[in-house]
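Quick one: structure tokens for this chain, please?
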Amino acid sequence: MSLPPRELIIVGSGPAGYTAAIYASRAQLKPLVFEGAVTSGG
């Protein structure tokens, strides 16, 4: 499986990771969020 190139990769899906993804999306970037745990959210 191959993913398209991303402009921004965010490691961690806690509050800061989600906030970074929101602001990146508002800036017309396409972020990809990675989380090490099975569930997201910190």
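The chain has a mean pLDDT of 87.
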